[in-house]
Write a structure and sequence with these properties.
- The chain has 210 residues and is an alpha+beta fold.
- The chain has a single domain, classed as Roll (Thiol Ester Dehydrase, Chain A), CATH 3.10.129.10.
- The chain is globular and about 50 Å long.
- The termini are far apart.
- About 21% of the residues have low confidence.
């Protein structure tokens, strides 16, 4: 006597139709609606700090903690691992936070100098990227780094760069002439009590793409 196992039919209906899935689009992800104010005449978002419409898609990304965290893990995982975070960015200045912890420490119980340079570079880089957003393609590349460490950093550091206008001038010049422009930007690292702990100079090269 042969006993056959019973046959079961399982009916599964997906909650979301298969044809509704779409490839991941990071631009779509970055440009989701936010609560930022808009210009009534153009219906475009405006920058609350400068009241200018330039580069708002980028500023929506960089000033959104969860979007920027996702972006760093995707494009700059080393900085994300160290805990680097953009606190604020507009057309004039950018501030980046670097916490002191085992991910950013050196053997001498302070923040590793390379981590400080990375946070300083990011403060200059996001400032430049915001100004470049919405303009014709311009390549940007770090060509030189200089640093001066003034005090042992065993606490959270804030690196601030306030050279937005200088970046805008360099970008405008390369767009007009097509020649590469170099700009030495300074980022100042301060401790929670305001004490200056480090100064890092990042020299960027900007060149209009053909």
């Amino acid at each position: 006597m042969v006993v056959q196992a019973p046959k079961f039919k399982v009916f599964f209906k997906p909650a979301i139709p298969c044809n509704s899935f779409r490839p991941f689009d990071f631009n779509y992800f970055c440009n989701q609606p936010t609560n930022q104010p808009t210009n009534q005449s153009t219906n475009q978002p405006i920058n609350q700090s400068t009241n200018q419409p330039a580069g708002m898609n980028f500023y929506q990304l960089v000033n959104s903690p969860w979007r920027m965290r996702f972006f760093l893990w995707w494009k700059l995982p080393a900085a994300a691992f160290m805990g680097v975070r953009v606190l604020a960015c507009n057309l004039e200045r950018a501030t980046v936070q670097l916490p002191y912890g085992w991910r950013s420490q050196n053997p001498f119980r302070s923040i590793y100098f390379a981590a400080q340079c990375a946070a300083a570079e990011m403060s200059t880089g996001v400032l430049a990227l915001g100004i470049l957003d919405g303009k014709p393609p311009v390549s940007m590349l770090v060509v030189r780094i200089e640093a001066e460490f003034l005090k042992k950093a065993a606490e959270t550091l804030l690196f601030t760069c306030e050279e937005g206008q200088a970046v805008a001038d360099a970008v405008q010049k390369t767009l007009e002439t097509g020649e590469a422009q170099t700009l030495r930007m300074c980022s100042v690292g301060t401790l929670p009590d305001g004490t200056e702990a480090a100064r890092v100079w990042i020299t960027w090269s900007f060149k209009r793409k053909n």
